[in-house]
Specification:
By secondary structure, chain A is α/β, with parallel strands linked by helices. Chain A has 2 domains: about 5-15 and about 100-234, HAD superfamily/HAD-like (Rossmann fold, 3-Layer(aba) Sandwich), CATH 3.40.50; about 20-100, DNA polymerase, domain 1 (Orthogonal Bundle), CATH 1.10.150. Chain A contains 11 helices and 6 strands. In chain A, strands 3-2-1-4-5-6 form a 6-stranded parallel β-sheet, with helices on both faces. In chain A, helix 1 packs across helix 2 (about 40-50). The longest helix of chain A has 15 residues, at about 65-80. Chains A and B meet through helix 7 and strand 3 of A and helix 7 and strand 3 of B. Chains A, B: InterPro entries: 2-HAD, HAD-like_sf, HAD-SF_hydro_IA, HAD_sf, S-2-haloacid_dehalogenase. Chains A, B: Pfam families: Hydrolase.
């Protein structure tokens, strides 16, 4: 692992617990309006529209727009799905920004800080720069750079996303390691020559999660936290 | 100043002392080869080619290339000017990376850290992302985001550079303040609606500096260090 100079982090699910945070934000915004719902299910429904929305961009059916735009459109669809109406444009904007205030997993801030002592740590997320900046300040996460979708104008697992990040750091793919809780993300990174680390996040999708519970290939590192990753790479 | 949510920093000259650092790197690289020169004058000559090289991009005579490319081309021209030959491509690459290891001014790391407690701090430099990442790790500088030339694919004072940064943070120009030791940089930012802070760096160009010794307009803040700026904005 001595050749690895930069670590690229998937963020949603790998570094932050989006589901609990979004469920809480939905309850805080809609509860006082008299809405009663399974907030975690509503968070799941919002997230379920994430991949299909990005797929429109990946497939070339729509020009690149940042994730805040997709989150806002998807929120409107989810509220309709749950029969919730009457929010103003400003209220919809504010609720969309729930994704800017996701709490990190307990090991994330400390793990990133430890990893950053020896290597470049960069966000390699489909989130836009404003979202990453706000989420990171909220959670005490320090990055050397925010790479990813907005810089590449493409959504993972589009190869452009990883390659633009590698290029921006002036490195070769083999000098970079993709860190993710998702096998698909690592599969795309490995195909381009990046090293790979799988972090188990068995409750990203709640207590009954069925996907990405275990590594689906022989990734270079498999671990249970970013602090464990720091120990393994040191 | 309560509305200011993000501070954009010019870096070369404002945050780091490029001249002393580059002179030292030239001496370290060329001295052992038997070259004897006025190293500060050689650093000045290298820097003198910076604006004309970027102007080729600004004027549309050349597609955008990152600053590492311009620094490398300019190094070859300066070495020829000083009658120095015989460096290999790898040696030229390594010397070009002198710009990735510029020392900060004594107040920079502490000032940025203090400013970052209350506001987003972002690099708004003509340097590329790799250069900014390496220089910041070298000098202990922590940013929330690296904006600037590479993100915008344009060089300051091209308005695109500032506006792309504002947009990436999801803010309005009036919510951002440009911080620079250069009146031209602040003039361009103010014309777009950003707030402005002038930092006196009277030895950026050495002991006989004649430019940018004082503010050329009534900038919103005028100060002598980033720690003073933090005091003034708190």
């Amino acid at each position: 692992m001595g050749k690895i100079e930069a670590l690229f982090f998937d963020v949603f699910g790998t570094v932050v617990d989006w589901r609990s945070s979004v469920a809480r934000a939905l309850e805080a915004a809609l509860g006082p309006r008299g809405v009663s719902a399974d907030w975690a299910a509503m968070a799941d429904a919002w997230r379920a529209r994430y991949q299909p929305a990005m797929e429109e961009v990946r497939a070339g059916r729509r020009p690149f727009v940042v994730l805040d735009v997709l989150h806002r459109e998807n929120l409107e669809a989810v509220l309709a799905e749950f029969g919730v109406g009457g929010l103003s444009a400003a209220e919809l904007d504010a609720l969309t920004r729930a994704w800017h205030r996701l709490d990190p997993w307990p090991d994330s801030a400390g793990g990133l800080a430890a990893l950053r002592r020896a290597r470049i740590v960069a966000a390699m997320s489909n989130g836009n720069i404003a979202l990453m900046v706000n989420l990171s300040r909220h959670g005490g996460l320090v990055w050397d750079a925010i790479l990813g979708a907005e810089l590449a104008q493409a959504y993972k697992p589009d190869p452009l996303c990883y390659l633009r990040g590698v290029e921006a750091l002036g490195l070769q793919p083999a000098q970079c390691m993709m860190v993710a809780a998702h096998n698909d993300d690592l599969r795309a990174a490995r195909a381009l020559g990046l090293a790979t680390a799988f972090v188990r996040r068995p409750t990203e999708h709640g207590p009954r999660q069925t996907t990405d519970l275990e590594p689906a290939a022989a990734w270079d590192v498999v671990c249970d936290s970013l602090t464990e990753l720091a120990d393994r790479l040191s």
